[in-house]
Amino acid sequence: xxxxxxxxxxxxxxxxxxxxxxxxxxxxxxxxxxxxxxxxxxxxxxxxxxxxxxxxxxxxxxxxxxxxxxxxxxxxxxxxxxxxxxxxxxxxxxxxxxxxxxxxxxxxxxxxxxxxxxxxxxxxxxxxxxxxxxxxxxxxxxxxxxxxxxxxxxxxxxxxxxxxxxxxxxxxxxxxxxxxxxxxxxxxxxxxxxxxxxxxxxxxxxxxxxxxxxxxxxxxxxxxxxxxxxxxxxxxxxxxxxxxxxxxxxxxxxxxxxxxxxxxxxxxxxxxxxxxxxxxxxxxxxxxxxxxxxxxxxxxxxxxxxxxxxx
Length: 311
Prior knowledge:
By secondary structure, the protein is α/β, with parallel strands linked by helices. Helices cover 27% and strands 28% of the residues. The longest helix has 13 residues, at 129-141.
């Protein structure tokens, strides 16, 4: 089967095509013929030698990627949830070696959900790591009726978080560039803030929760808009030094967060997709042969919604 291996950490040119055997299913795994692969910022960070690179450096070969949607072609003898021919999607072995940049993937049964029939494989592949991140954060750290701020509301995590927060009964404000104002509002945000022309801390106050996908000085600025007892969760943990201490000084809670593979949560995302409570916005698709361009697109930092690769 065709795969994209990372021959060394660094530049995008280190992503190279190769041929390796189709994997065999362990007892609790299924083999998935991959129809679509979601690309995320963590892919780019890991490729460069950051993020999960330290945990992958001893594998040979290193195959990046964690988000897949496809069709089950084989099952391990202990698998009970899926059978051959089922369309499934999920975030595989995160944080670990997902090996998603391939035509076939061995995936733990417990990391997958059935793909809703009313969405495409491309839409499903988009709704894995980013959607799981948004869902796990909101489910664990918010309550119905909360007043919530979501940074980068037009991005991968952000555009799912806005929809999910609205589904959960929250009031939502979202930051993005002005060109994405209508998109953010269409997702269900009650308010949009153009970060290029308005400092959000000048117009917001007494919020219950902030989902920060940027880090750095956004943490300090976001703490200003939280009420006493409010909470901020920062996704890019490398940019979240001392978040707990900073928040505690103001009588608030600050947390780092790392998503993890979870089939039960994927089933809940499947339910939301099937019921049209959320939807994937796919900004661009690439072929597996052009995966370098997909990385460059994410690396630009200007992606709206999701980027997906099709083998």
